[in-house]
Amino acid sequence: MAVGLAVGVTPLYGFHWMILVAICVPFRLDTGIALLASQISLPFIAPFLTFAEIQIGARVLRGVWKAVSVAELRGFGAREAAAVVGELVVGTLVVAPCIALVGGTLAWALTRAIRRAKGNEDA
């Protein structure tokens, strides 16, 4: 679950399944569950994830939140695009492990609670 979430928040759309197979198969992880978890980047969620990653990347790199306004977008050029890519990379390196940790922990806790309720803790 955690691996799928970490890969799913990356902006490498279309390559998630290849990355997951490359990670899950050698480590004998459940590729199906990881693929399901990677669907966190559905089209109606992905823009918000990307925006959060850029904002967090800007905060880490420059110590300020990125300004978003029409005036900012009018002056957008190659230099700004390179800065946004850098912010996206750094933001993804921060957001991915955080989401993986939270989602993986919740999945583990839920699975453990269900197993306890069924009375088969060892399974």
SSE layout:
Layout (H helix, E strand, L loop, with lengths): L1 H7 L7 H12 L3 H7 L8 H17 L7 H5 L3 H41 L5
Helix pairs in contact: 1-2, 1-3, 1-6, 4-6
What report would you give on this structure?
Helices cover 72% and strands 0% of the residues. With 123 residues, the protein is mainly alpha-helical. Helix 1 packs antiparallel against helix 2 and helix 4 crosses helix 6. The model has no long low-confidence stretch (mean pLDDT 91).
Summarize the structure in short:
The chain is an all-alpha fold and 123 residues long.
Task: Name the features.
72% helix, mainly alpha, 123 residues
Number of H/I helices:
6
Cα distance, first to last residue? 18 Å
Largest sheet: none
Estimated helix fraction: over 70%
Task: Let me know the number of strands.
Answer: 0
- Percentage beta strand: under 5%
The computed structural class is: mainly alpha
What is the string of helix and strand elements? HHHHHH
Average pLDDT works out at 91
Low-confidence stretches: none
Radius of gyration: 18 Å
Oligomer: single chain
Large-scale geometry:
elongated
